[in-house]
Amino acid sequence: MKKIAVLTSGGDAPGMNAAIRAVVRRGIFKGLEVYGVRNGYNGLMAGNFVQMDLGSVGDIIHRGGTILRSARSERFKTVEGQHQALAHLKEFAIDGLVVMGGDGSFKGAGKLTAQGFPTIGIPGTIDNDIAGTDYTIGFDTAVNTAVEAIDKIRDTASSHERTYVIEVMGRDAGDIALWAGMCAGAESIIIPEDNYDIDDVIERIQKGHKRGKMHSIIVVAEGVCKGTDVGQLIEEKTGFDTRVTVLGHLQRGGSPTAYDRMVGSQMGAKAVDLLVEGAKGIMVGWKNGQLIHAPFEEAAKDKHAIDLSVYHLARSLSI
Ligand code: ADP
Ligand code: F6P
Q1: Would residue 127 show up in a list of annotated catalytic residues for this protein?
Q2: What's the distance, CA 209 to chain centroid?
Q3: What is the domain-level CATH number for residue 192?
């Protein structure tokens, strides 16, 4: 292993820069040449490689987004696209590739490995929805951003005695909704991992109202339905003044929290160590507060599971 490359793919996530920095610095520390691939798999297919030196990753550990930029690429799903990428990896004499992204990105990395090219995956997505790891880079920052936003909404909800529905991201997973809802003291949290029952949501709002609670916060994960649909039903059925906020891509940006920098740094360095040891087709992960690694296929066998005990606790704390 003499030359390695790193790319970021799928939705960007705060903390990716800390992980890129770790890949580059650990790689150089281990005597490797390190290349960055711009624009995810699109850049791999276009040969958009740039050599990274120690200074190229200076002053980025505190920045959101990804300095390598990211993309989703339909063409890379085809064999032709993968062959094009492999040709460029050969042209630049790259021996191993670190792919940072979600499970889609890992499927792509797995295809390269199946064709003989060593890849290591680093879980990076705000959704925290990857099987085989308790944590994905960016989740903590996204949750903190959502909590800060909901705290602000609570101020105006309370002043105007309104009900607020807040839609958060997460794709098909309810982790952001659960954590943000629990930590912001939401009256109801609606997640894809439980059956959505609007009557239950309304009953909880009305119960609170009866004991003098004049405002309510409902957090809904985008994977269930649109926040506007929930808001409309609440207003129709209760007559309470209701507003809806979609937090959207706000949740993807911002300076990464210390936790995301810490996990990103450790995962980035571990990915390089694994390549140097000759590993391939492996995902780095985080379990019980520690780094782990497992083959892509093994990690993908489990379905990502939310902690439902936390969900039930949140319900019992917001009666
Ligand atoms: P994420 O990595 O966050 O899950 P996507 O699902 O959009 O995001 O995947 C990112 C990219 O990974 C896709 O745009 C595509 O280029 C690549 N990819 C996804 N699935 C596959 C697949 N089955 N085979 C090859 N590449 C894939
Ligand atoms: O996977 C990260 C994520 O932000 C999801 O939470 C969301 O569903 C999706 O990406 C949005 O994708 P895009 O940036 O393409 O709109």
Answers
A1: yes
A2: 36
A3: 3.40.50.460
